[in-house]
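Reminder to self: tokens first, then the designed residues, so the page reads top to bottom the way the pipeline ran.
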């Protein structure tokens, strides 16, 4: 009942925690958008004829770092704790409690997917540096003059 902010002053602890969680979610969203931009840059580098492996690896590492920071921000920012408390207190009617439980599942899934995506980028980064090449280009074949 402390979450309801009728006068619009946000004086209660639950209301201020809700506002903090909104800020944390917005910051995590910005980090994910920047990470997705880094991933798109990586895809664009795959389509170039003369790719730079170190730059591709750096793009993957930056994306992994941003995803990891977004995950840590969600965890340390208390998003899961807030939704867990809201579900535990059952402050709403039946429809409201169902929406809160739905939000809880979404927060947990998002945090898990951020961690999995960061791990994928971490694994892909050294592979891109070592063996990364473009998707386009002439395949390497030995000519009749190159006998080894």
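Designed residues (148 positions):
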């Amino acid at each position: 009942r402390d979450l309801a902010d009728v006068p619009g002053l946000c004086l209660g602890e639950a209301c201020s925690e809700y506002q903090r969680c909104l800020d944390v979610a917005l910051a995590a969203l910005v980090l994910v958008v920047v990470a997705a931009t880094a991933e798109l840059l990586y895809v664009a580098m795959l389509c170039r004829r003369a790719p730079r492996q170190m730059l591709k690896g750096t793009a993957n590492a930056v994306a992994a770092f941003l995803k990891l920071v977004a995950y840590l921000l969600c965890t340390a920012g208390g998003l899961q704790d807030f939704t867990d408390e809201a579900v535990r207190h059952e402050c709403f009617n039946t429809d409201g409690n169902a929406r809160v439980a739905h939000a809880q599942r979404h927060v947990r899934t998002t945090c898990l997917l951020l961690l999995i995506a960061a791990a994928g980028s971490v694994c892909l980064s050294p592979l891109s540096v070592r063996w990364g090449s473009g998707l386009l280009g002439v395949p390497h074949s030995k000519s009749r003059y190159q006998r080894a």
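The first helix runs from residue 13 to 46.
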